[in-house]
Amino acid sequence: MENHQSIETVVRNGLCTGCGTCAGICPEDAIEMAVDHLRQIYVPCRDREKCNECGICFDVCPGPPFDFKKLNLNIFSKEPEDILLGNYLNCYSGYATDYDIRYNSASGGLATALLIFALEQGLIDGALVTGFREDKPLEPQPFIARTREEIIAAARSKYCPVPANVALKGILNADEGERFAVVGLPCHIHGVRKAEAENKILRERIVMHLGLCCTSTSTFSLIDLLLQKSGVDKEDVAEFGFRGYGWPGKGAIKTKDGSIRFVPLHKWLPWHSPGFFVPRRCLICPDAFAEFADISFGDAWHPRFAEDKVGRSIIITRSEMAEHTLSNMKSQGVVNLEGAEPRMIVESQPLMTYRKKKSLAARRRLFYRDVKSYGYFLDSGALDYIWAIYQHYYSSFVSRYLYPSGVLKHIPVEFVRLGRSPMFAISYLQMKRVIRKYY
Total domain count for the chain? Predict the structure, then answer.
């Protein structure tokens, strides 16, 4: 494998998504995902003695420029007419009718309900999902869930680095004829799709791709900060969760003495949403709605659902299989669904759409000229350049210099919300203009 096409080069250039695809598909088991404690993200570590330099790790990597046009043509046989949402068949909002699943999920519990339905109907034999490790409850654990209980245990969002695709190895080692679903953020789905192009077994066995809408992930520094501000030592944590307990949810820190400390969403989300701890690669990603999944799920942050205190999801179907499965779920009373206009989907995620599709061009031109453009996004205007500078400041200065100094744990969250308000106003203003133009 030539040096300019090595997985190490991807990491060195800050283009690694930490998705784990390279480790999951390596035929020699020569790659492991490990935490880079300086950057607080997962990166691949290659064992040069095991490696035969076949180059597969680089070929399946979604970190370097990712060809949206080529993959759209391969999967959907056309480029998308809607560059904000990607190719799709229909849009919905809804929730799982099982109250416990709905209440204990990040939003409406649709992804969990669909996986359980697919498993019990024999559509799949297992699902690639992510939970937290029992022995290290602050570290994610991708695995193949084969029971209802295992699927439920992996519910709720993980606002931290997740090398989900390391579990592709479990699909490759499964029995012949078994079928699987995979669940992941856009970058995970990108990696899976590239891996399928290289590996016939994955292409045959993965029959469902469930994508989770994503603004960006956060480094492990976010978890550290939340524990510091909650006065909890990392060694005392028995269980950790970001969302659940109704809508919009709250974090829960269970300690080894049996006590639980709840952190309402408005108390911790501001540390995530401005981009304090965003890995470099997330800042150049143009995929908000998991455009290459069969079906995409996200939070329904829309005024129409302001009174909902349990949870509701937005859903985008992109394949006939997903549409058919969702229809069967509705007819059997597993989910409650109502149709949604594409405009409403975008209005439910204005900040995410703005960062991925509107301010991205400005960010690239100002700070990431060394990265080749890829994907679909809109031209940026003057206000978008202001936002881009704001975003870059937070992601670089705050996470690299201010956080290590220990200052952030003494800053009230109300101050953070106040500081981000002008930039959020810009994003909402710009997205209103985009929505009026496209819808």
Answer: 1
